[in-house]
Amino acid sequence: MTDALMAGPQTLETRAPAPTVRPQTEIDRAITDYLQHMGVERGLAANTLAAYRRDLARYASYLARSGRQRPADVTRHDVTGFVQALSDGSDGGSSLGVRSAARTVVAVRGLHKFWALEGITPTDPASDVHPPMPGKRLPKAISVGEVTRILEAVGTDTATGLRDRALLEFLYSTGARISEAVGLDVDDISLHASSLHTSRGAGDSEGPAIVRLFGKGSKERLVPLGSFGARALDAYLVRGRPLLAAKGKGTPALFLNARGGRISRQSAWTILKSAADKANITKDVSPHTLRHSFATHLLEGGADVRVVQELLGHASVTTTQVYTQVTADTLREIYAAAHPRALG
């Protein structure tokens, strides 16, 4: 039933133009079946399901304009034509970026695979149609000097200042993801005496401070914590955290907000942004920038890529190797500027 019929009688002057309603096809009904399958049997999240619904509605409209009425009518040429339409908007829709287009193609491939498995179509015309591949986005790191300026811009004369300095020192010292840092409990760190003093006494324990991080998939890893980070954490634990904890309900969280609860990711981002502003850093800096800088500076200092992989918690070394390209670019720039026969 159209909107005009549902709205009841209207005068000629007030009646709005009735929207063009496309007759429902077998393809539309088969898409509805697929979405129900994904929502009920596959347990797809509501937001993801809504995105699939939008993407496949555009696909159904594209097929309808091409004269396709039944799932079995769709050919590989239709699928590749739709992929092209996603990038250039030739179907009347907006042109999508590589990542958005790739998400839509994934939805289309899943649809056709479902149809083939259910016997709705004899073949899968999308089986060898691949999503567009996004170009590798090189991580953005800032210099050691810029990191130092940010860290030193944080005042430590208040409990929150001690926390902010400890948090930022921790992020840069460990390369932790922001979610890993805010999820830490006090028991997840071990501050050895040798990390808190410039020289060791006879009774001091060996080795650096250690922190236990829980990465993606709750995968646990142990990461050393440098002396600057360890001293900042020690100062926060002794002089800052007790004051913040007194306002809360006894949470084991390491980094606390002003009310004594666990600090949020957004608050951590705001802490870094404020410190960067105080340090007059005009670049776009986020907590992930400190993670990128941690990895880049280690490699520039001669660390092995597989060691950096372990520290970052990457499942595959290929993920870490993107940083080696950044380091190689830096080396090329230095070489070109410094070697007497680099440029001629």
Automatic annotation (TrEMBL):
Q: Which InterPro entries match?
A: CB, DNA_brk_join_enz, Integrase-like_cat_sf, Integrase_catalytic, Integrase_recombinase_N, Integrase_SAM-like_N, Recomb_XerD, Tyrosine_recombinase_XerC/XerD
User: Does the keyword section mention Cell cycle?
Assistant: yes
Show the Pfam families listed in the entry: Phage_int_SAM_1 (PF02899), Phage_integrase (PF00589)
Check the record and name the PROSITE patterns matching this protein. Answer: CB (PS51900), TYR_RECOMBINASE (PS51898)
Highest taxon, organism lineage: Bacteria
Q: Answer whether the UniProt record assigns the keyword DNA-binding to this protein.
A: yes
Core-binding (CB) domain segment(s): 25-116
Q: What is the predominant subcellular site recorded for this chain? A: cytoplasm
Q: Where in the cell is it found?
A: Cytoplasm
Q: Which UniProt keywords apply?
A: Cell cycle, Cell division, Chromosome partition, Cytoplasm, DNA integration, DNA recombination, DNA-binding
Domain called Tyr recombinase: residue spans: 137-336
Q: Where is this region: Disordered?
A: 1-21
| Active site, per annotation | R177, K216, H288, R291, H314, Y323 (o-(3'-phospho-dna)-tyrosine intermediate)
Task: Describe the protein's quaternary organization and the partners it interacts with.
Answer: Forms a cyclic heterotetrameric complex composed of two molecules of XerC and two molecules of XerD.
Q: Which family does it belong to?
A: Belongs to the 'phage' integrase family. XerD subfamily.
Free-text function comment from the UniProt entry:
Site-specific tyrosine recombinase, which acts by catalyzing the cutting and rejoining of the recombining DNA molecules. The XerC-XerD complex is essential to convert dimers of the bacterial chromosome into monomers to permit their segregation at cell division. It also contributes to the segregational stability of plasmids.
Q: Output this protein's name.
A: Tyrosine recombinase XerD
The organism named in the record is: Arthrobacter humicola
In the UniProt record, the gene name given for this protein reads: xerD
